[in-house]
Design goal:
The protein is built from four helices and six strands, in the order ααβββαβββα. It is an alpha+beta fold. Helix 1 packs antiparallel against helix 2, helix 1 runs parallel beside helix 4 and helix 2 packs antiparallel against helix 4. The protein binds methionine sulfoxide (SME).
Length: 160
């Protein structure tokens, strides 16, 4: 059932604040976020960060901390995938049915929907948080707000 579960989202927000206060570095925070979301948000079947490789020309997204199945997409140029679309536009991308989106780069055959949220440092995209679900249209407005909150925590931490 694609129902919302605001209770779980509220609980997870509190847990996120705990993870954020306990993480000593941005790297630990990103790892903690992937672990928490993958464990507690039952439809978040793959959760991972892609970060822009410093100084790369052309720009390249490189896989960082993740939870879920191994993906062949460890490096993604900005003109490829949903990931490239989110990083190059600086906008959250929600895809309810990945199989009908020509930009989609397949990670797992089970994936049905995806959300990608950019991470900003001083107004510039430095990476993104990517989540795949085995359920169609898994990402509601509440999910979007939750994932954007995670990306903001990481951005603030990277700003120092
Ligand atoms: N589906 C992404 C690629 C990354 S994997 O899902 C982990 C995309 O279309 O950019």
């Amino acid at each position: 059932m694609a129902t919302l579960n605001p209770y779980r989202i509220d609980e997870v927000r509190k847990e996120l604040d705990r993870v954020n206060s306990e993480a000593r570095t941005a790297d630990q925070l990103m790892k903690g976020i992937t672990l928490l979301l993958n464990k507690q948000m039952l439809k978040y079947n793959w959760v991972g960060f892609y970060m822009l490789e410093p100084g790369a020309d052309p720009p390249m997204l490189v896989l960082g901390h993740y939870q879920g199945a191994m993906t062949p997409h460890t490096r993604i140029p900005l003109n490829e995938g949903i990931c490239g679309a989110a990083a190059s536009s600086g906008k959250t991308v929600v895809v309810d049915d990945v199989n009908s989106d020509p930009r989609y780069l397949a990670c797992s055959l089970e994936t049905k929907s995806e959300i990608v949220v950019p991470v900003f440092v001083h107004g510039k995209v430095v990476g993104e948080l990517d989540i795949d679900s085995h359920f169609s249209a898994a990402f509601t407005v509440q999910d979007r707000a939750l994932v954007e909150y995670c990306a903001q925590l990481v951005g603030k931490r990277l700003e120092g």
